[in-house]
Amino acid sequence: MRRTVITTPVLAAAAVLLLAGCGGGDGDGGGAEKDTPSAGRSEQPEKDGGDGGEKDGAKGDEVTREVTLEVEGTGKTQIAYVAGSNATEQVTLPWSKTVELSLTPAEQKVGVLVSVLPGTVQDLDGQLKPAPCAIEVDGEQVDDNNDGRDVTGCTHLLK
């Protein structure tokens, strides 16, 4: 019982931190390079095509990544996720969600957060633990929560 009381606030706090950290990024000018003054992230690279030639892409355009979020287990649980949009859902396990995310050249440089925060499930001895989760990018697993041992869920900085 005590474990449930401790785990629930920890998961709720982690969800709030994950969701609060997903803002736009226009506000505080994280660098002194040419990306900071541009009002529209995707407009400037298109207008100044020769400026953003740091990436391997010949066009310097957006790159699309396929991201799959997975939560294993049985029964129902609450999950929170960030992958292009953010949401919380009551789901039946096992659960997965696949989205295609297009990254602008600036997002390719600094990264975009994708994450899933699973709710709790019962383990073999009846104790509650976070459900096992994993994140795959283009078919390759990039993070997991060590079969539910990591209470922070699964996160990845997509570039």
Automatic annotation (TrEMBL):
PROSITE patterns: PROKAR_LIPOPROTEIN. Keywords: Signal. Coiled coil: none annotated. The keyword Lipoprotein does not apply. Residues 1-20 form the signal peptide. Residues 24-66 are annotated as: Disordered. The keyword Signal applies. Residues 43-66 have a biased composition (Basic and acidic residues). This is MmpS family membrane protein. It comes from Streptomyces carminius.
